[in-house]
Design brief:
Length: 333
Amino acid sequence: MGDEKSASFSFQIERQSGNDVLKVHTLAVGYQNEVVSENISFNLSRGDSTALVGPNGVGKSTLLKTIVEKLPSITGNIQYGSNVSIGYYDQEQAELSSNKKVLNELWDEYPLISEKDIRTVLGNFLFSGDDVLKIVSTLSGGEKARLALAKLMLQNSNFLILDEPTNHLDLDSKEVLENALIDYPGTILFVSHDRYFINRIATKVLELDRGGSTEYLGDYDYYVEKKLEQEELKALAEQSAKASGSAVDNSKQDKTSYQQDKEAKKLERQRKRRMEEVESLIDKLETEVAEYEELLCDPEFFQDHEKAGEINSKIEAAKEKLDELMEEWTELA
């Protein structure tokens, strides 16, 4: 950032929830009765940090909005545990009031906190001096993200539901957020396309597709490993079925089995090679997006609307490509 300062914050809770935080049973989500994903079932316990992953357009954000009652469920049941208080971060920052000043965005919701303390909180999120008098609609993407996180911090909720929380954050702010979430004493359910962020934060992974959800009781590396194991077992089962169903003599069967094995190994080599290529491209694009977003956080750069517009276009194009690559990577894994 221009002045090389870093954000500084942590998430605390006002009171602890019960052990059962959330139970979702045979849920279907979507818009206006058009189902995006169905048969979603999972439980969250106190202290879980769960990453919601899956192909682009499968309804991850829709599921979060349904859980926080921004959207009605189509079918199924959502049950909250005792003493659960939810803090929701919307990637589109819909929780912010575009016509308010930065100072009033917080102060109007927490009128009992003194102006000095509100300014201190905003200072921790890099809003200092006259920055707090800016109108929310004039803020950059990074500034809006930090303001939304400041509001979230003041809620002291024991269950955080976060939709793409690292979007628009510069690298320093992203690292501060990661550390704050690692130290957070509550429960987290989040969506992110940032593999490094997921691997640092998640203790469980919930994979979503149009037909349901699958839970993996480990971090992101564990999820990738299990997906690979499942694909290998599926391939072996298919080979075994073909072998047992063949009514051929032994020599022909041996020859066919050898050819199948050879072809399977060739395909596996191609799959691993492509997976490495995709991972390399993802890493490159994620770095590019982070660098672009850091540029947008520089006030001097942000004031040049033409350059800022160009960078925003590049970010959108890179994220669109990232979505495609992440979908391909999920299929390969």
